[in-house]
Amino acid sequence: MLFKFAFRNVFRQKRRTLLTILTMFGGFTLAALAIGLADGTYAYVINMFTRNQLGHIQIHRESYLDRPSLYKTVDHYKTIGEAVGRISGVEAWAPRLYSAGLVSLEDKSSTARIIGIDPVRENTATRFDKKIVEGRSLSGPAAHEVVIGRGLAKVLKARVADEVVVVSQAADGSIANDIYNIVGIAAAGDDMSDRTAFYLHLDDARELLVLEERVHEIIVIINNIDYVYKITGDIREKLADSALTVQPWQEFARSFYQAMQVDLQANLIMLLIINLIVAVGVLNTVLMTVLERTREYGVLKAMGTRPLMIFRLVVVEVAVMIVISLIIGFILSLIINYLLATTGIPMPFKFSYGGVEFTRWYSEVNARSLYIPGITVAVVALLVSIFPATRAARIAPADAMRTN
Amino acid sequence: MVEISGKEVIVARGVKKTYYDNGVPVEAVRGIDLTITTGEFTAIVGPSGSGKTTFLNCISGLDDVTEGKIWLGGKLLTCMSGRELSDFRRDRIGFIFQAYNLIPVLTIEENVEYVMLLQGVPARKRHRRVNAILEELGLGGYANRLPTQLSGGQRQRVAIARAIVSNPAIILADEPTANLDSQTGAELLDLMRNLNEKKGMTFVFSTHDAMIMQRARRLVVLKDGLVAGDEIRS
Ligand SMILES: Nc1ncnc2c1ncn2[C@@H]1O[C@H](COP(=O)(O)OP(=O)(O)OP(=O)(O)O)[C@@H](O)[C@H]1O
Ligand SMILES: [Mg+2]
């Protein structure tokens, strides 16, 4: 009865109801899109950084990241890598060796970051071959080949098949120098790496720098990024080596992670604003409705309707509108989010984050982007309806009857 | 003084009601003593502003009194809580308003059964009772219509049906014919008089309408918030 009554009241002033529903469902959809887009972009950016470059988890010799040195190495990397590879949830691992050097081609020269990689492992872990924009990737066995970054190629005016000379310092203190054949040019990810990346086969790099079974870094790729902390713990436990640091991406890329958190906070503020608009909109229309029905509520009270029932009548009416709004909003947001997740929207401007350039915005279809706006909009609308509902419940029937 | 024949329904003693209009006191009712007994068909008349509506609102507990005491069915109204009053009105008083005041989103049937719903009367009984009353008041075919689909006279009939449906001790009507043409008004009054005679229902009207005054069996005249005359007519 109460429900029937409230339900019919909803459809009484069709325009106002439409407005209220539009406010709520608009707020819902906006919030859902904001969350979807934020999560999508967040996931996309993190993926770009971790999955394609830095790995989800990194293993170093203690304090390597704070003060990198040629001598702070992870020894017996194969044994360690294989042990890590057997932990459940780990998808791939790859060893890396780093050093600095001077690269020259004819009369051009530049500083470079020598990165020794295992091309096979690097392919499965970070899809290294996908980064090649010209030429090819390194061969499986070491063959004195090098892949250089796009930016570095520009500086050196280097092309595929050119030979470059590199000079560096070896671990035994001697001067390291050698000649390599450029087989490919890569888009290394960010601008900085692009200008300095000098990828050698791990074996070539070890020979150049006179490092035995030692690397500077092992990156680990896991199946599901949500379990990164847990798996980091598992690795630590398994290795049980206090000389090694095992860190999830949130730690080894702390400034990047913090920038992401700031982004999420901005998103929270946006949600707050959306909900404020919903609150004002709903309050306005419900209050107007109650005022308009003063006489009617007065009559109901005169006939012996208890105040609580009048209160419920108003709240249930709002609840009916909430349900309608949420159903429409749910369907619409799902469709839009899905479209944005599959095709993305082009960014109106070039946007670079940590040196990585993004051209499209992607959304993510997830439960969060539906239940967060759903709950907030419903709670806000219900809370806001308490005031007009109380007002309706308190109407003095005698006064109500006199107003014409 | 008027002789009291039936059982007392309403007893008002020294009822005063003062409104404050922007701080200025308005003494709408200035000390009324009145007793209404079962089976009465009484019109409260008087010039505009004499306190008729105010007095009706006081005796039905819609408005609280400034001074004085009111008993309804032997119970003292003036010391009841809001909720007690609410339930009391639901069970003891039927209202008929000048502007009909039917609930626009409820059908005729739903409007009439509303009070019984509040009382928790089972659906079958409600249904039977509503149908019987609608039939009796000549609204048989209108049960599923909305108020807006009815004429003013028909609407006021529905309002009468709504007021009497749960057999209240008294039916209060504030200017029930003011919005109707005289013929329709007369018809409705005859209808109520009929209910009064056949079923002994107690009616109290406030009115300017000479036609009601003619049909009333007791006339209470108010003037400046006081009883200026009280006569029983045959
Ligand atoms: N809520 C109120 N606030 C202030 N004054 C009021 C209020 N209600 C009624 N009054 C005053 O009380 C007096 C009595 O009013 P009431 O409505 O009872 O008269 P009435 O006899 O019903 O008049 P009418 O025949 O015009 O309906 C009037 O002077 C009116 O202005
Ligand atoms: Mg009046």
Tell me about this structure.
The complex is a heterodimer of chains A (404) and B (234). In chain A, the strands form three sheets. Chain A has a six-stranded mixed beta barrel, surrounded by four helices. A two-stranded antiparallel ribbon of chain A has the order 2-10. In chain A, strands 13-14 form a two-stranded antiparallel sheet. In chain A, 55% of the residues lie in helices and 23% in strands. Chain A contains 14 helices and 14 strands. In chain A, strand 13 and strand 14 form a beta hairpin. Chain A folds into two domains: 194 residues, no CATH class; 179 residues, no CATH class. Chain B has 234 residues and is α/β, with parallel strands linked by helices. In chain B, the strands form two sheets. Chain B has a six-stranded mixed β-sheet with strand order 6-7-8-3-9-10. Chain B has a four-stranded antiparallel β-sheet with strand order 2-1-4-5, with helices on one face. In chain B, helix 3 crosses helix 4, helix 3 packs parallel to helix 5 and helix 5 runs parallel beside helix 6. The two termini of chain B are 16 Å apart. Chains A and B meet through helix 1, helix 11 and helix 14 of A and helix 2 and helix 3 of B. The complex binds adenosine-5'-triphosphate (ATP) and magnesium ion (MG). The site of adenosine-5'-triphosphate has 12 residues of chain B, from strand 1, strand 2 and helix 1.
Key features of this structure:
heterodimer, A: 404 residues, alpha+beta, 2 domains, six-stranded mixed barrel, two-stranded antiparallel ribbon, 14 helices, 23% strand, B: 234 residues, alpha/beta, Rossmann fold, six-stranded mixed beta sheet, four-stranded antiparallel beta sheet, 7 helices, 10 strands, globular, binds adenosine-5'-triphosphate, binds magnesium ion
Give a summary of the structure in a few sentences.
The complex is a heterodimer of chains A (404) and B (234). Chain A is of the alpha+beta class.
